[in-house]
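Hey,
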Amino acid sequence: MVVGSACGPLLLRAYFLRGGSRKWLSSLLQTAGWPLLLVPLCFSYCSRRRREEEDGGAATTPLFLMTPRLLAASATVGLMTGLDDLLYAYGLAYLPVSTSSILISTQLAFTAAFALLLVRQRFTAFSVNAVVLLSVGAAMLGMNTGGDRPAGVSRAQYYAGFAMTLGAAALYGLVLPVMELSQARHAAARGAVTYTLVMEMQLVIGFVATAFSAVGMLVNNDFHAIPGEAQGFGLGQAGYYLLLAGSAAMYQCFFLGTIGAIFYGSALLAGVIMTVLIPVTEVLAVMFFHEPFNGTKGVALALSLWGFVSYFYGEVRAKAARPHSGEAPKPDHLDP
């Protein structure tokens, strides 16, 4: 998740800096790396099949572990993710980066609220402190520069972009707890959620979200425009396609890490990691794109790291307070 969060935005930013302009394509790249999951899933299937044969079974290993209900839930999350990518891409077309940063930073607050409503997330003083610090730090980055309406953008377009970006933050704040709730309901019905199952969920989510963006590209005639854009790209034609492939792979790391963070932790943990990486991405942008780094960004970075440490310190204390046992941890805070 850290690798995807840090590298994905940088590669996508390089796409626009070097001459790329396709919003639907940028939306598709965020989920187009889903076929990469077929490799570990194939290894997992072969491993399960070999174990069953060694145990003397009839080698009736199911190809997929997902139930129809979980498949439908993952497809729904995929549509939500595709819509979220679309809202974010179109919001950036009408808003300055500063205003967009302020709105996207509200994702953590939405995640906390929806986690409380959907999965009854337990909050401690440390987790509340982390949410406040991370939200303030991310918002400071957005207020670092002027937020005036860009030249050539009408007032109606500006407010439309404002609503779309805020909607993208709210929607992804809902997506994370919905993923956690889906895993909890499957655990209640089937008794176990494995990381193989988590990868299958991400496979379906990525496929549906990519199909959603691909339909938009077809309508917008983006597929026919890609060769011409590649010829005029600042890094050359080969660099263009390598950048697209790298962006898809890095964003796939991000989404797989996100659903893994939910699996091993919670939706709130995924939101905390996403928010704390906003200033980290800013530091990397300074290193690779030579963007200015002033005192405001330094304070935002310190606040984010403070919130990150606060969250994990609270988790360590909560774990130490629980009685030790040999059983695997149960999602007792969830309400299937």
